[in-house]
């Protein structure tokens, strides 16, 4: 099968596509999934260079998030609700950039019928991160003001849509006019500011009538800057450090406005709070199935042969929404069956 196999640490641009990689074998509680589309993540770029916190032994297939169909030759373990051909999305610690992946059936969810495989490719990590951040950690309430930084990015645009669906008033903050347009057009943000400009927080204060925002959702590393426009008793969520630097914070800023700083690490729920995950995915599937939120896929969809270009675009901050590699074409797969 075709797969992005890492045999030694290298930048994605230096990893050739393997055309005859061995197909994975399913373990006891695993199913085999034919991968149609897979989501690109910044940590893939780190992992293939040996710079990520989790490094599988060589050789390994890169990629974590995917959408596809349960394979015709998949075993169906006891208790598994799926059958061959079912449309699913899911996640693995590595192995998604391939025509086929072996995955624990508990880490697979049904892909809503109104969703394409490209849209499903980024659902497993990106969306629950933003949902749990806003609902579980910040306890967002309808009518509150939310500021989302990197609002056109993968987790950011999901946060904008979710906050809107939860009844909040959303201010998107992005680094270019094009990304501001994306945040409003595809995210549905009520207002948007360009945070590459100095004193952008003044604009946020003006929009909120001087009050500031109740919740800050920050995947960039802009908590300290955002506290200039947070409201009394506001909650700031630490989501990530896409800007490349782990922030530190003088704690008097926390005291002065009675604020809370909360973190989100979605991946850790698997070991720390597995019983909570179904509630989050259940709520998300409801919102996705009814069309109240809709995954945003970056305009260029990369075939597996060009995945390095997709990862380069992600690395160079050129992308918006979820960047996806399309591994199988649904139409071609249907024709091949006839
Ligand atoms: N906590 C969790 O459980 C969890 C889960 C998933 C992801 N994350 C983290 O969240 C962060 C964002 O992930 P994502 O998937 O949304 O990434 P993404 O799609 O690549 O978006 C990141 C955005 O950050 C902004 N940015 C600001 N400074 C940047 C820089 N120096 N280099 C690159 N981008 C920069 C860019 O938007 P502008 O151009 O508009 O500034 C970029 O579009 C990552 O750090 C990721 O590890 C955390």
Could you characterize what this model shows?
- The chain has 338 residues and is of the alpha/beta class.
- The protein is built from twelve helices and 15 strands.
- It has two domains: 5-123 and 295-337, Quinone Oxidoreductase, Chain A, domain 1; 128-267, NAD(P)-binding Rossmann-like Domain (Rossmann fold, 3-Layer(aba) Sandwich).
- It has helices at 42-47, 117-120, 126-137, 154-165, 177-185, 200-207, 223-226, 252-256, 269-272, 277-289, 307-315, 330-337, and strands spanning 5-6, 30-39, 60-61, 65-70, 87-91, 100-104, 108-110, 145-149, 169-174, 191-194, 213-218, 230-238, 260-263, 302-303, 324-326.
- Strands 2, 4, 5, 6, 7, 14 and 15 form a seven-stranded mixed β-sheet that branches.
- The two termini are 22 Å apart.
- The mean pLDDT is 96.
- The structure holds NADP nicotinamide-adenine-dinucleotide phosphate.
Topology:
Blueprint: E1 5-6, E2 30-39, H1 42-47, E3 60-61, E4 65-70, E5 87-91, E6 100-104, E7 108-110, H2 117-120, H3 126-137, E8 145-149, H4 154-165, E9 169-174, H5 177-185, E10 191-194, H6 200-207, E11 213-218, H7 223-226, E12 230-238, H8 252-256, E13 260-263, H9 269-272, H10 277-289, E14 302-303, H11 307-315, E15 324-326, H12 330-337
Parallel strand pairs: 8-9, 8-11, 9-10, 11-12, 12-13, 14-15
Antiparallel strand pairs: 1-3, 2-4, 2-6, 2-15, 4-5, 5-7
Helix pairs in contact: 3-4
This protein binds NADP nicotinamide-adenine-dinucleotide phosphate.
Domain Enoyl reductase (ER): 10-325
Organism: Wolfiporia cocos (strain MD-104) (Brown rot fungus)
GO molecular function: oxidoreductase activity; zinc ion binding
